[in-house]
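Hi team,

Filling in the usual template for the complex we talked about on Friday. All components are listed, including any nucleic acid strands or ligand strings, so the model treats them as one assembly.

SUBMITTER: L.P.
PURPOSE: interface mapping
COMPONENTS: two
RESIDUES: 323
SEQUENCES:
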Amino acid sequence: MKITVNGNGLEIQDEVKHIKGLIDFLELEDKPLIIEHNQQILQKEEHEKAVLENGDKVEIVHFVGGG
Amino acid sequence: MLKVGNYQFKSRLFLGTGKYPDFDIQKQAVDKSGTEVLTFSVRRMNIYDPSLPNFLEKIDVDRYTFLPNTAGAKDAKEAVRIAKLAAASGRCDMVKVEIIGCNKTLLPDPVETLKATEELVAEGFTVLPYTSDDVVLAKKLEEAGAHAVMPGASPIGSGQGIINPLNLSFIIEQSSVPVIVDAGIGSPADTAYAMELGADGVLLNTAVSGADNPVKMAEAMKYAVEAGRLGYEAGRIPKKDYAVASSPEEGISVGN
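RESULT (copied from the run log):
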């Protein structure tokens, strides 16, 4: 299926079924990150419940230096 | 002790985490500053290069209270979204509302800042809005429930120091929530001056990260905050037009 991650199109295999699967697929499982799925901000425990569908929009953000 | 909402801090210096030469210097600077509060921004992750290091991996995150900013937001709606994203990290419920209204001066949008403050207070955040040194706006932010107000000393990153000490004094005098001078600080003298005016704290970034020696400057800022605060508590002498001798005028043995 095709989804949009941080504004860019991304083709993922069908076995990636939910947000947690996407994080693992992108090898980001050890990173402190925050996910917005179709404009819904997720708590960490929701990552496994958030089912991915074709056309979904995902934002993956984190803390960076700032004042 | 500085109290902001339900938080208490021994250090009155809040330190930004942007634009340090490298993570090691940043870590040392943070240590030397004695700060307990670090500011951050929220940005998209580079998902195609997960090996890129993040400063958070270098520091003991449990030692610090996180103060994410909403930099990048152009209106209240975006600021609220960024604050909620930051809160979803599970690391913080404090937020620095930063809504830039002018790209050249980076001065804040007062209307959207007030709106975002109202909304975030209603959502249960501990809200610290970055504002201009507008006295009336600072009062309105406090009335909207802001847990501290953070007037700028001068434009962000300019290093111009305190260009309107009178307005800052008015804000400090009227405010019943902490006043943290944020933005424009260039040197330890500026920091001490802000504290001597009665500010409850200072938030700075570029003054340290952009210094020739950020680690040394971080330490200097720590002492400047402490010296300025002590000076404020001690109560300075009034300024006079003419000299007043500090040595006794009686019993001079020279002359007749």
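MY TAKE: Strands of chain A lie at 2-5, 8-11, 34-37, 40-41, 57-65. The interface with chain B takes residues 5-7, 26-28, 31-36, 41-44, 59-67 of chain A (CB under 8 Å).

Thanks, L.
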